[in-house]
Design a protein that fits this description.
Elements: H1 4-27, H2 33-40, H3 64-90
Amino acid sequence: MIQRKQLLLLSVLIVVSPVFGVWLAEALNYAEPLDHVAEALNLTEWEGLSWTPLKEYSIPGLPDWLGYIISGFIGLAAIVALGYVLKLYVSK
């Protein structure tokens, strides 16, 4: 289903992604637009809503850039696995 060239390209993009998602975001002082809205409305983060184990693409105890890369590979693996499962069920 996924070829080596595609996997290599996606892996390179995942490894390069912290340049844009971590370093440049910090350098440009970028924040998500909804974060600005929440701040303007004096809303605080509700812990019940943030159920994800990899909040903001970070892993506790690891540098932000490494957590970003690991999160990318976990996401890639999940999408590829889902594709294979769907392929098995659709081809029947």
